Amino acid sequence: MAFPVSGIETYIFIPPLVAFLISFFTSMAGVSGAFLLLPLQMSVFGFTTPSVSSTNFLYNVVGTPGGVLRYMREGRMSWPLACCITAGTLPGVMAGYYARVKYFPDPARFKFFVGTVLLYVGMRLLRDAVKSAPDRGYTPSALEGIERPLRITNVSCGLGRIEYEFAGRRVSFSVPGMFVLSLAVGVVGGVYGIGGGAIIAPFCVTFFRLPVYTVAGAALMGTLVTSVAGVAVYSLVPLSNGMTAPPDWPLGLLFGLGGFLGMYFGARTQRHVPERGIKLILALVILTVSARYIWRFITP
């Protein structure tokens, strides 16, 4: 099958299959998988124009509802956290779009930018997985003793701080701190073509010390909302040459179909996988992709 905008020719089942495999594992940590799908499109399929970012956003729009719905059904959606993430990332995406078309139109420079972002995310995840106490009590075996179903309860919201209980523990985070972080993540996500979940989720876990089981749903919800804005901006706002950069709709929809199923089943499987295992798998994959991009930029 030929895809007109990207110029890709491949079997019709390849995009949804690849997206399913990626999103199944990444969604357990609140990540849609777009951060890995973009390098795949650039390196394997040769799709390097600004439209690759909007296609990635389209994948998020179609795919993330699968994970979001599952987390909502299981009562593990932290709505206050999701609102904080969305409020910060939305304006950041607009600024990120401007940076993408002005400073990173060249594929080589853009790949280096991608590599540095992934390097930072991967190192944060790896450090936390290695140095922290094993899963801080949130292993599947530890959770077995908690009354089912596992849900977020006793939520307390304020302008300065938000608190909630999960698995018998009370956790909290700073609202201003989360907003500032989300704003910065939105800028990077707007450049990269991701909703920001790949960046915000590790920070929520490592810096704010929130359990990944409660971060995942909120991160995916933030990714969904900001990705809708991303598709709109790339499709309607002209580039420096007066042209827009709309997504490759057939390709993005096929990726999204696989992502929807992958994220749904990934969210369902999450509670049975140790938190440390999720972090290690994600960190190793991220660092591998990052090292490849940075090395290719240094030694063209």
Short description, anyone?
This protein has 300 residues and is mainly α. The protein has eleven helices and five strands. It has one domain.
- pLDDT averaged residue by residue: 81
Given as residue ranges, the uncertain stretches (5+ residues, pLDDT < 50) are 135-148
Strand order of the largest sheet: 3-4-5
Number of strands: 5
Q: What oligomerization state is this entry in?
A: single chain
The main sheet comes to: 3 strands, antiparallel
Shape: globular
The CA-CA distance between the termini, in Å, is 31 Å
- Gyration radius from CA atoms, angstroms: 18 Å
**Helical region count?**
11
Count of separate structural domains: 1
Helix and strand content put the structural class at: mainly alpha
Q: What is the strand content?
A: 5-15%
Percentage of residues assigned to helices: 55-70%
**Secondary-structure element string:** EEHHHHHHEEEHHHHH
Distinctive features:
66% helix; mainly alpha; 300 residues; 3-stranded antiparallel sheet; 7% strand; two-stranded antiparallel sheet
Task: Indicate the topology.
Layout: E1 2-3, E2 8-9, H1 14-26, H2 34-43, H3 51-73, H4 79-103, H5 107-131, H6 140-143, E3 153-157, E4 161-166, E5 169-174, H7 175-192, H8 197-206, H9 212-236, H10 249-269, H11 275-298
Antiparallel strand pairs: 1-2, 3-4, 4-5
Helix pairs in contact: 1-10, 2-3, 3-9, 3-10, 4-7, 4-9, 5-8, 5-11, 7-8, 8-9
Structure description:
By secondary structure, the protein is mainly alpha-helical. It has one domain. Helices cover 66% and strands 7% of the residues. It contains 11 helices and 5 strands. It has a 3-stranded antiparallel beta sheet. The protein has a two-stranded antiparallel sheet with strand order 1-2. The longest helix has 25 residues. 51% of the residues are buried.
